[in-house]
Amino acid sequence: MKPVTRPAVLVFGGHDPSGGAGIQADIETIGVLGGHAATVITALTIQDSRSVSGFLPAPLDIVIQQARMVLDDLSIAAIKIGMVGSIEICEAIHTLLTEHPEIPVVLDPVIYGGGGGTLSSGELVQAIRTLLIPRTTIATPNRRELQQLAQEGDSIQACGAELISLGCDNLLITGTDDPLPGESPDQVHHLLLTADGESTSLQQQRLDHHYHGSGCTLSSSIAVNLAVGKSVRQAVTEGLDFTWEALSNGFQPGRGQYFPGRLSHQKLQ
Ligand code: PLP
Question: Which of 216, 218, 219, 221 is CA-nearest to residue 34?
Answer without folding.
Answer: 221
